[in-house]
Write a structure and sequence with these properties.
By secondary structure, this protein is mostly helical. It has helices at about 20-40, 45-55, 60-70, 75-100, 110-125, 130-145, 155-165, 170-190, 205-210, 220-244, and strands at about 5, 10-15.
Length: about 240
Amino acid sequence: MEENGQNGNGAAVGPRGLNGNTLKYIAALAMLLDHVAMLFLPEASPWSIVLRTVGRLTCPVMCFLLAEGFCHTSSRKKYALRLGLFALIAQPAYAFAHEGNFSTLFTDWNMLFTLLLSFCMLWGLSDLRRSGLKILAACLCVVASVFCDWGVTAPLFVGCFWLLRGDRNKQALFYVALTAWYVLQSLLFSEGDLLALRGLGLLLFLPFLFLYNGERGSRNPFHKWFFYLFYPLHLLALGLICWL
């Protein structure tokens, strides 16, 4: 592998390109734009469609970083506990920001729960010895994610990035196929109109997939904890502003 250039799969490597910390901040910005549009702009307005399309970038970035983190973490147990803890912390803010009350506190679960289920899915696929158990564990995690933000779609993204790790071209190919499935089912079953096409914003992730240099970036604890804190705090702040 060259220090400054590309590998055989066309992915940026070495210090050039984007590290994991940079991708986290890009995801946070996209998420903020998405939620601002969701709470303060008419759904069919041009600015809302633009901002929410850009906001689609958040999900694949977090799914990709989760798959990378699973491969490199020194403690899967601590990683899972951290996801679970902050998922619980974020849930009241998530319900309040989306509904203006807590009516969905126990029925609509936030993205960190989705990532936790995706992490458990990878854990099962990695450690269980029997193929049947691997498939069963993966299916249970995917089905359980139906009750969470980006349910089913996010675990499939995570599985794609993890199973095809090391080959960016194959990751991109299967990711595009999953995106096409997501947009199609949105058009047919969820939204049923052109607003579903904002799901094409998921394709904005492709350049970042190839720009990722495989490095974590600075190990300053701030970078590690930023997203865990940003997620509930920005939801709480936006929810309060909207309520006021």
